[in-house]
Amino acid sequence: MAEKNNANIGFEKEIWDAACVLWGHIPAAEYRKVIVGLIFLRYISAAFDKRHKELVDEGDGFEDDIDAYTMENVFFVPEEARWSTIASAAHTPEIGMVIDNAMKAIEADNKSLKDVLPKNYASPDLDKRVLGDVVDIFTNSIDMGNAETNEDLLGRTYEYCIAQFAEKEGASGGEFYTPSSIVKTLVEILKPFENCRVYDPCCGSGGMFVQSAKFIQAHNGKRGAISVYGQEANADTWKMAKQSAF
Hints:
The protein is built from 10 helices and 2 strands; from the N terminus they run ααααααααβαβα. It has helices at 11-19, 28-58, 66-70, 83-88, 95-109, 128-140, 147-168, 180-190, 207-218, 235-245; strands spanning 197-200, 227-230. Strands 1-2 form a two-stranded parallel ribbon. α2 (28-58) runs antiparallel to α7.
């Protein structure tokens, strides 16, 4: 029997539709930051868990050494910020504070993320019961058995959700998003092979960086083989770009 593949059943749309339970429970301007932050947190948790298991299996005692993660381009996620901690607190009144503290802890241990991650989950405007339901969605919809596959799915989900935000926000969505088909065409023309530097002077939410990484991977290269640089005037959009670039 063929193995079930989430990529063939609209995985990204399932996550988006489920996460839309937040509509009506939070100001529209905050919704994007809440969802993007959770996607990013889930993404780096999957990568951390995979690397942590590798280090434990090696048996050299480096599983709590930050350098053992950064050398592999993996963010170190302290215990209070790991997804297992978030998931266990999903249906407690403190879930918003738990997520905000997780974001702060991650920034403290990963200086490249300083002032990047959203910390609006404890806001009284955000229904904590509904937030817990969204955390459950991200916990139960993604099998942690294969971290590499999950990172790909989460990356695709991030890209899909950014596109949906742009569509919902109409003309203003163009401020942070250019359709991936257009960006992909530009990248195919530029051909950013290994050791290239990719610069986008109006980087928006980082679509050029995402597509450049995909180009490298499609041509048997390592994602970290290129350097990306960008400029963005809008602070919130810049934060999305920083998250997508990782």
